[in-house]
């Protein structure tokens, strides 16, 4: 806080304290002696589904604890990162090389093979390699090679999305989300290994999605495409609130791409990355910021109207991280003002000041929707990661 008692969201002590407060919610209750980590918590921390393990959640816990060990050095977190990586490679990984999307009681109950999930395995392996876990480099290389064999489309310059568990059938659906998180994971792999093939591929994805494909949708990045990578405006048109494949422009994903372009600019500087990052961010704030209630909505229709007006935790987190990077890149104080107002709304409506961590989602006016703080996949990887990203720049 400053002298007047106001929270100063850009202060290092505030961010570090917030990270530790978030860990304080998860650490006492996530570790499972049966393998991996529990992933379903009510607001008060009670686990409502102890048997399910989703690939994205399993991998994100590994990222959280590997990063925590790298930055703070708690041996427990090193052990948990190893534990989580081993669970990925012994429980999720299947004989034909893919990682199962959903396990319930150790049994695969969703047989889809998802590029999106494998992107997070790559990210987890990169985080573990940075802290010296011996098996991580093999996992990193194997996962990249698997993606290369079963999902990479050289002619399209992008990754396909989904196969069946025999790996013989490829879905015609194409999407940006798996590619965005592959770009994130490839940048992490580059940082962990300094192997230029990872940076090269991340740069190619950034060019493809932020420029080539975005040209089909007036410069913003659309979520869904057909097998020929033409924008599919009809896909999931009745499901703008879908958790993984929502219809509409996603302000949160425009922010994430903007952040990735700025990270890429730090590795291979070019003014086009910064200009496009500013463009994506500005359009997302213009259409997504709720002037009436504050906060940033989940989905915006092509005509600019809200098609999903809920306020998700991860959208706000990615927005403030991107605002901060743009501020530090351009020294434009408008981004700093955005950073502060995004944080303030999140602090008032999404941060759980009683039990810790962030609520998953709120109604447009900031009121609760349910009491499930962390369903499968939510590990507060977005919120702690956003704080770490701010601290890193």
TrEMBL record:
It comes from the Bacteria. The keyword Isomerase applies. GO terms for molecular function: isomerase activity. One of its GO terms (biological process) is carbohydrate metabolic process. Pfam families: GlcNAc_2-epim (PF07221). Keywords: Isomerase. Gene3D superfamilies: 1.50.10.10. Coiled coil: none annotated. PANTHER family: N-ACYLGLUCOSAMINE-2-EPIMERASE. Belongs to the N-acylglucosamine 2-epimerase family. This is N-acylglucosamine 2-epimerase. It comes from Litorimonas cladophorae. The lineage of its organism: Bacteria, Pseudomonadati, Pseudomonadota, Alphaproteobacteria, Maricaulales.
């Amino acid at each position: 806080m400053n002298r007047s008692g106001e929270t100063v969201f850009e202060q290092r002590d505030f961010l570090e304290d917030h990270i530790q407060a978030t860990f304080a919610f998860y650490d006492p209750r996530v570790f499972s002696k049966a393998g991996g980590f529990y992933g379903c918590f009510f607001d008060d921390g009670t686990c409502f589904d102890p048997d399910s393990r989703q690939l994205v959640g399993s991998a994100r816990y590994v990222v959280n604890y590997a990063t925590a060990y790298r930055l703070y050095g708690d041996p427990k977190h090193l052990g948990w990162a190893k534990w989580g990586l081993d669970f990925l490679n012994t429980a999720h990984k299947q004989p034909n090389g893919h990682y199962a999307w959903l396990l319930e009681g150790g049994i695969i109950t969703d047989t889809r093979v998802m590029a999106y999930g494998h992107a997070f395995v790559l990210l987890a392996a990169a985080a573990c390699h940075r802290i010296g876990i011996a098996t991580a480099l093999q996992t990193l290389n194997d996962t990249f090679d698997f993606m290369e064999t079963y999902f990479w489309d050289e002619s399209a310059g992008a990754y396909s999305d989904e196969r069946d568990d025999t790996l013989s059938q490829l879905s015609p659906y194409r999407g940006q989300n798996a590619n965005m998180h592959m770009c994130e994971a490839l940048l992490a792999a580059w940082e962990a290994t300094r192997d230029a093939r990872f940076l090269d591929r991340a740069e190619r994805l950034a060019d493809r999605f932020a420029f080539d494909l975005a040209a089909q949708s007036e410069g913003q990045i659309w979520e869904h495409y057909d097998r020929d990578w033409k924008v599919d405006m009809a896909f999931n048109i009745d499901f703008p609130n879908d958790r993984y494949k929502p219809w509409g422009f996603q302000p949160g994903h425009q922010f994430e791409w903007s952040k990735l372009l700025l990270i890429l600019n730090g590795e291979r500087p070019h003014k086009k990355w910064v200009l496009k990052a500013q463009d994506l961010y500005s359009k997302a704030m213009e259409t997504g910021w709720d002037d009436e209630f504050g906060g940033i909505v989940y989905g915006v229709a092509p005509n600019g109207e809200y098609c999903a007006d809920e306020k998700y935790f991860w959208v706000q987190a990615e927005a403030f991280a991107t605002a901060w990077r743009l501020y530090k890149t351009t020294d434009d104080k408008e981004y700093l003002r955005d950073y502060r107002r995004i944080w303030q709304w999140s602090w008032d409506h999404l941060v759980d000041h009683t039990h810790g961590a962030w609520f998953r989602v709120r109604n447009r006016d900031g009121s609760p929707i349910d009491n499930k703080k962390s369903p499968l996949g939510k590990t507060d990887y977005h919120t702690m990661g956003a704080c770490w990203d701010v601290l890193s720049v």
